[in-house]
């Protein structure tokens, strides 16, 4: 019987190309980080029309000595669909390459309300990325997460002790929330209709609660989060009320509880504890009580690209918390 481990040279060559591709894929994150750092999207947005390499470089204050390197950098970013290129003829009829924004780089324009720059800055921070170095060894460790193995404390303890990480975390979550808030209110707004009060448990700096309060002014919205997250916000806002506390201990009473991107931070036992506190906070179902959960559902039937993103989010949760992205059943 032929050895199952025998592969043709062609298969091995393809395998090597595949492994090199996987190995060097960290350049995707690092190119994204560098594009944000340089502010390429801001310059293209401000210019308002396709921009030539030399103009882009001079506006970004990049030395002409780096022309070839920057052209190669832009070639990769364009290949990644972060920017697009267009060939146009100049007055002497020579073809010149121009760069322009794509929907993805539109999200990297710092002045845009939907920009996701704070989330990118959070995820590429050495404090977060450092934990990825110990994923392999964590499988043999008793620590709750690779993050805890790397930093000797959990993520939420660390955010409470380090104001700069707390700020990055809150701004990162808020930046990713804006588009999701609009989508939820547009497609599932009926869920909130008829409520008199709602508490956003682990609601961070209140992006979602404020959007709900604006769309449904009759709902009294409260945000419960850890004291270091909400203490500075308490006086700032008249639209929502901020309460500092611990969702494992108690949840303020309301008609409904919202859990957006909370349960995926915790393992099944911890989720049951949180859900018990939430159940105590609301009336019974017949009296209108409800728990609204917004989390990613891992679904192998949707397109490959989306599944890959879901799997990466699942690994992010595994690396930083005790949680996971869950499937429907
Ligand atoms: C992933 S963030 C989600 C924030 C917000 N719900 C959103 O969708 O942007 C998780 C939030 O849970 C909060 N959190 C963690 N442990 C908590 C606890 N024991 N009680 C209340 N909030 C907690 C964190 O401070 C953080 O704001
Ligand atoms: C910003 O958009 C999303 C963020 C999350 C998300 O990201 C995190 C990143 C961390 O470094 C630590 C965390 O604990 C978390 C989260 O708990 C968390 O929810 C999730 C999203 O969708 C599920 C986001 O939108 C795509």
UniProtKB/TrEMBL annotation:
Protein keywords: Methyltransferase, S-adenosyl-L-methionine, Transferase
CDD domains under this entry?
Answer: AdoMet_MTases
Boundaries of every O-methyltransferase C-terminal domain copy: 139-328
Active site (UniProt): 264
* BP terms from Gene Ontology: methylation
UniProt cross-references to InterPro entries, sorted A to Z: COMT-like (IPR016461), COMT_C (IPR001077), COMT_dimerisation (IPR012967), SAM-dependent_MTases_sf (IPR029063), WH-like_DNA-bd_sf (IPR036388), WH_DNA-bd_sf (IPR036390)
Q: What Gene Ontology terms describe what this protein does at the molecular function level?
A: O-methyltransferase activity; protein dimerization activity; S-adenosylmethionine-dependent methyltransferase activity
Segments forming domain O-methyltransferase dimerisation: 20-110
Which one Pfam family would you cite for this protein?
A: Dimerisation
Q: Does the keyword Transcription apply?
A: no
Descriptive protein name: Uncharacterized protein
Give the species: Dioscorea zingiberensis
């Amino acid at each position: 019987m032929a050895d199952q481990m025998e592969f043709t040279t062609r298969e091995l060559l393809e395998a090597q190309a595949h492994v090199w591709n996987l190995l060097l894929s960290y350049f995707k994150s690092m190119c994204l980080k560098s594009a944000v750092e340089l502010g390429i999207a801001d310059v293209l947005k401000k210019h308002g029309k396709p921009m030539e390499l030399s103009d882009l470089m001079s506006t970004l204050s990049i030395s002409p000595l780096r022309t070839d390197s920057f052209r190669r950098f832009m070639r990769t970013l364009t290949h990644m669909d972060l920017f697009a290129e267009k060939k146009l003829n100049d007055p002497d009829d020579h073809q010149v390459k121009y760069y322009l924004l794509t929907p993805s780089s539109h999200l990297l324009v710092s002045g845009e309300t939907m920009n996701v720059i704070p989330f990118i800055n959070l995820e590429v921070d050495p404090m977060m990325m450092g934990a990825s170095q110990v994923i392999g060894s964590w499988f043999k460790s008793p620590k709750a997460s690779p993050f805890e193995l790397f930093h000797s404390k959990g993520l939420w303890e660390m955010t409470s002790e380090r104001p700069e990480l707390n700020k990055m975390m809150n701004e990162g979550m808020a930046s990713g929330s804006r588009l999701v808030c609009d989508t939820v209110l547009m497609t599932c707004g009926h869920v909130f209709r008829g409520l008199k009060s709602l508490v956003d448990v682990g609601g961070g700096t209140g992006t979602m609660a404020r959007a709900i309060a604006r769309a449904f002014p009759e709902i009294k919205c409260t945000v419960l989060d850890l004291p270091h997250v909400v203490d500075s916000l308490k006086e700032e806002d008249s639209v929502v009320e901020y309460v500092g506390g611990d969702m494992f201990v108690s949840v303020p009473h309301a008609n409904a509880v919202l859990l957006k991107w909370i349960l995926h931070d915790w393992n099944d036992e911890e989720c049951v504890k949180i859900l018990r506190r939430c159940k105590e906070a609301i009336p019974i179902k017949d009296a209108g009580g409800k728990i609204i959960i917004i989390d990613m559902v891992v679904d192998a039937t949707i397109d490959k690209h989306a599944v890959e993103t879901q799997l990466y989010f699942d690994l992010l949760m595994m690396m930083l918390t005790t949680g996971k992205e869950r499937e429907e059943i």
